[in-house]
Design goal:
This is DUF7153 domain-containing protein. The chain is an alpha+beta fold. The protein contains seven helices and eleven strands.
């Protein structure tokens, strides 16, 4: 680990995160109907299933600001560390329910991750993770992995771009939080082994500058990075 800065704090959280990467907007489907009368909306039923779990802390749906992004939307749902390390992810994330078939069609990757490392600046609270600024946005970088995972764990801050972000990101974007996640349970077959999330407190004010920095990360040809705004909180 090489992320060092005098402007923030390093932290290891006992938290787990569900990350669902979608190719389209999961809210677009029409409500289920009975004799022409709307009775429920399938998307909000999924959201309720997240909230009903006793370990649920918070969550949000992120929307890409890059028209060419492979993943247009991401569900980010935070849970307390389950007491049993081998808990079945479906039982935790969906309160024992299987993900609806209509959602499977737009799910590119779904996994249950452990927070391995978090950096926050001195003015940012560790919890809750909900940003205080309405101008906040996120750079999300996802990585597949082959080879020796143990060696990748040791050098994560280099190959993930975390060192580059901390050292070179424009100060006007206001780096506030950087969190590195490692896959604990895969739910889909095509799943990312690692995910890096970077919270920028003023990215929407300087959207073009933030998108330029995303291009810099993608030019490294290691992982897939995109810029996301908050669609709604869960």
């Amino acid at each position: 680990m090489a992320v060092h800065t005098s402007n923030g704090r390093q932290w290891n959280n006992d938290l787990h995160v569900l990350l669902n990467f979608y190719t389209d907007d999961p809210k677009k489907l029409l409500p289920e109907t009975e004799t022409g009368i709307s009775i429920s909306h399938p998307y909000w039923g999924v959201v309720r299933s997240f909230q009903e779990n006793d370990l649920f802390l918070e969550g949000m749906l992120l929307k890409s600001l890059d028209r060419e992004a492979r993943h247009r939307y991401i569900h980010y749902v935070v849970y307390n560390n389950p007491p049993e390390s081998d808990i079945i992810p479906e039982a935790l994330t969906m309160s024992g329910r299987q993900q609806p078939e209509w959602l499977n069609g737009i799910t590119a990757s779904q996994g249950f991750y452990r927070e391995m490392f978090t950096f926050v600046d001195h003015q940012t609270a560790l919890l809750p993770k909900r940003p205080q600024s309405p101008r906040s946005a996120y750079i999300v970088s996802s990585f597949k992995a082959i080879g020796c995972i143990r060696e990748l764990d040791k050098s994560w801050s280099y190959w993930s771009g975390a060192d580059l972000i901390v050292e070179t990101i424009p100060s006007i974007l206001r780096l506030q939080r950087l969190t590195f996640h490692k896959l604990k349970h895969d739910v889909t077959s095509q799943v990312y082994a690692y995910v890096l999330m970077c919270e920028l407190g003023d990215a929407l004010t300087h959207k073009n500058k933030a998108l330029e920095f995303v291009d810099t990360l993608n030019d490294r040809q290691c992982g897939l990075s995109s810029l996301y705004a908050i669609d709604h909180f869960i």
